[in-house]
Amino acid sequence: MMVYSNLINTHEFCAINNAEQAPEISNEFITITLENKKDSGIGRDDGIDYARHFCHWLFINGHTCSKLSMIN
Hints:
By secondary structure, the chain is mainly α. The protein has one domain. Helix content is about 60%, strand content about 0%. It is built from four helices and no strands. The termini are far apart.
């Protein structure tokens, strides 16, 4: 049986994982990466738009079953 830590060293992430996590972690990406690093060059609103469009692309192309939506 292969241990996950060994897979990290020998395979690229996309070779052993699907895109199902992308919609789930997109909110964390926005809050942790873009809000904490103001000098990233990408604003929060732009980051939200990029994440929404990317997750929508993943959904319509069959790479994920999850659909990202905004809650106001």
